[in-house]
Amino acid sequence: MNKPNPLSGARHPLWGLCLFALIALIGLYYVKWSPYYDRIFVAEQTHSIGKSILNGSDGMLPAPSLQAALDYAIAYGKAIWKALILGLLLGSALQALLPAQWIRRWLGGFGAGSVLTGSLLSIPSMMCTCCSAPVVNGLRQCEAAPGSTAAYWLGNTMLNPATLVFMGFVLGWHWVGLRLAAGLVMVLGLGWLLNRLNRASAPESADAGAADARCDTTDSARGPMDAASILRRWAKAFTGMALRLLPEYLVLVLVLGAARAWLFPVLDMSIDNSLLWIMGAAVAGMLFVIPTAGEVPIVQAMLALGVAAGPAAALLVTLPPVSLPSLAMVARSFRRADLAVLVFGIVLLGVLAGGAAILLGF
């Protein structure tokens, strides 16, 4: 039996591909590329990209309260709402506007190649972990492999070129080197590991052709390919994602906003390079939710207050890639064991980054 040609557009209309490309290009330019380009010059001139989002209006961490929760949710929401809408649009459009065979061909394999592809696709995306979660769900719905999907998800934050440039101008280029090294290990290493752990459950060999055979969401199975049917599927996917993800997302952001004084009880020179502080910072950073590049002013403020380099490095590595809300948002797209591997691996890399910062004399 001949395999379907992944480049064949016989059943999938060209306008759907063009519409997806327009949404991605225009959306990313408006939400990410243009604002970040301007922000680079601000970072170069002022060595700052803003205040730490952890602090309240008085510059201090507020005590846990409903007001603290609302204040953080509002500040965070203002920073990410455009990207979140774009993420929902792209995540739902993946399922309706792109040929399913394309995603299975490039991201469905269980080898290192699909992990590398997911990593490369993440670099221009540059979304925070929560805003990229709808795209992650869309990829998994279209049978992208766990490892390549995780590489795309983690790469959005850890390989974000704008964040690395901000970091260089604000914190110093030695911090960029540490972050980039940890990011590459995290994105490529954890992506490869997830594919290895899931390879045994795949009924076929781990290649693109086998990915086609595994997936039953072929374009013909999606139903009619006329414009009205495709747009209805897109609207249904978008509405389903929004109704499923946004309520739990909002609740968890409120909880973390209220509890930030518990997650970060001390922000001064009493935080030294002991293993306990480094591990605590790594766990707190993994749980907490921040907008894109939000870790840069947070770490800058902590270093200015006398926080030691080890815990600061741990936060620099664990704050961006995942958070409690984003883990909840993708919980249906990964096995629990896969999420546990991601969480443990991120915390471990945060601790190792803290140790590296100490050894290198940061």
Attribute tags:
362 residues, globular, 16 helices, mainly alpha
Care to count the β-strands? 0
Structural domain count = 1
The secondary-structure element order is HHHHHHHHHHHHHHHH
Radius of gyration: 21 Å
Task: Estimate what percentage of residues fall within beta strands.
Answer: under 5%
DSSP summary: helix tally: 16
Structural class: mainly alpha
Q: What share of residues is helical?
A: over 70%
Which segments are poorly predicted (pLDDT under 50) over 5 or more consecutive residues? 1-10, 205-218
Q: Average the pLDDT over all residues and give the rounded result.
A: 89
The global form is globular
End-to-end gap: 60 Å
Structure description:
With 362 residues, this protein is mainly α. It has one domain. 70% of the residues lie in helices and 0% in strands.
In short:
The longest helix is centred in the last third of the chain and has 37 residues, at 227-263. The model is unreliable at 1-10 and 205-218 (pLDDT under 50).
Secondary structure layout:
Blueprint: H1 14-46, H2 66-97, H3 100-107, H4 112-122, H5 133-141, H6 146-158, H7 161-170, H8 173-199, H9 208-214, H10 219-222, H11 227-263, H12 275-287, H13 295-304, H14 309-318, H15 324-329, H16 336-359
Helix pairs in contact: 1-2, 1-7, 2-5, 2-11, 3-9, 4-6, 4-8, 5-6, 6-8, 7-8, 8-16, 12-14, 12-16, 13-14, 14-16
